[in-house]
């Protein structure tokens, strides 16, 4: 599908230094439409929805917030730490949503793997089906994220 001028504007907002220092695209040179279509197709192949992924991330984040910066154990075998930073960030999709700056580090104790997501990451997944461009700081493929969260 051809990228619209609106999607061009949104993609411009995602470049480094506009909303965040490192941006959302990494070294991915594809059009935003192409990224979104690929990520959506991956979720469909997995038999999941973006909302399911975001809901599990939000559930883990909420558990981590209870620890006030200290690690919290979440069954079956996750350790979650939530660290708040002052301020808010606007969604690059330019629809008036802002989210708090909260970094959530999730460790899967069974696999030993750790990921860090932000509240903006969770919002972008849930409301826009966007998991980040290749090489972006908080980017993670839907398949990798689903496996990490043990949803597949």
What are the low-pLDDT stretches, counting only 5+ consecutive residues below 50? none
The count of strands amounts to: 4
Major sheet: size, sense and barrel closure?
A: 4 strands, antiparallel
Strands side by side in the biggest sheet: 1-2-3-4
First and last CA, distance: 29 Å
Radius of gyration: 15 Å
Strand residue percentage: 15-25%
Mean pLDDT: 95
Number of helices: 5
Shape estimate: globular
Summing up helix and strand content along with how strands pair, one would put the structural category as alpha+beta
Order of secondary-structure elements: HHHEEEEHH
Helix content: 25-40%
Whole-number total of structural domains: 1
Description:
By secondary structure, the protein is of the alpha+beta class. It contains 5 helices and 4 strands. Helix 3 (50-65) packs antiparallel against helix 4 (119-128). A hairpin with a 5-residue loop joins strand 3 (98-108) and strand 4. The mean pLDDT is 95. The protein has one domain (5-13, 21-148).
Summarize the structure in short.
The chain contains five helices and four strands; from the N terminus they run αααββββαα.
Which key phrases capture this entry?
single chain, 152 residues, alpha+beta, four-stranded antiparallel sheet, globular
């Amino acid at each position: 599908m051809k990228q619209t001028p609106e999607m061009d504007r949104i993609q411009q907002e995602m470049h480094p230094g506009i909303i965040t220092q490192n941006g959302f695209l990494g070294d991915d040179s594809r059009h935003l439409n192409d990224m979104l279509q690929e990520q959506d197709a991956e979720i469909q192949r997995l038999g999941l929805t973006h909302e399911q992924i975001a809901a599990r991330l939000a559930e883990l984040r909420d558990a981590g917030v209870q620890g006030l910066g200290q690690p919290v154990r979440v069954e079956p075998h996750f350790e979650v730490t939530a660290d708040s930073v002052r301020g808010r960030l606007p969604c690059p999709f330019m629809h008036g949503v802002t989210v708090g700056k909260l970094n959530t580090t999730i460790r899967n104790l069974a696999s030993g793997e750790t990921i860090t997501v932000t509240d903006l990451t969770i919002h972008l997944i849930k409301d826009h089906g966007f998991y980040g461009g290749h090489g972006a700081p908080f980017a993670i493929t839907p398949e990798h994220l689903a496996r990490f969260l043990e949803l597949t």
